[in-house]
Amino acid sequence: MSEQSHATTGTYLRIAGVLVIITFIEVGVFYVPVFQAALVPILLVLSAVKFTLVVMFYMHLKFDNRFFAFLFGGPLLLGLAVVVSLLFIFYGTVRLRTGS
């Protein structure tokens, strides 16, 4: 098994810059009235991108064995599926109660 080299300091600084930019976009999306209808999906996607970058680079999963990425990502995907399912169930029950 060949060992991959870890990222350089410049890479970590670029990732930090991207994380800051995404955070500014999240704050901007929150305050722009046009995005209010799609606020939650937009913020979820942006947060998922930030989460992925942090996990890949700062937790070094990009450079570790793929098995560790599976151990981390598998339960994460399962939890995400449960949360999304619960959101759909809640949304469906609210629509039924309000008659919309």
Q: Give the helix level as a range of percent.
A: over 70%
Question: What gap, in angstroms, lies between the N and C termini?
Answer: 58 Å
* Number of domain units: 2
Mean pLDDT: 82
In DSSP terms (H or I, runs of 4 or more residues), the helix count works out at 3
Radius of gyration, taken over Cα atoms and rounded to an integer in Å: 18 Å
> Which word captures the global form?
flat
Strand content: under 5%
- List SSEs in N-to-C order: HHH
Largest sheet: none
- Structure summary, number of beta strands: 0
* Class by SSE composition: mainly alpha
Which consecutive residue ranges, at least 5 long each, have pLDDT under 50? none
What does this structure look like?
This protein has 100 residues and is mainly alpha-helical. The chain folds into 2 domains: 1-64; 65-100. It is built from 3 helices and no strands. The protein is flat and about 60 Å long.
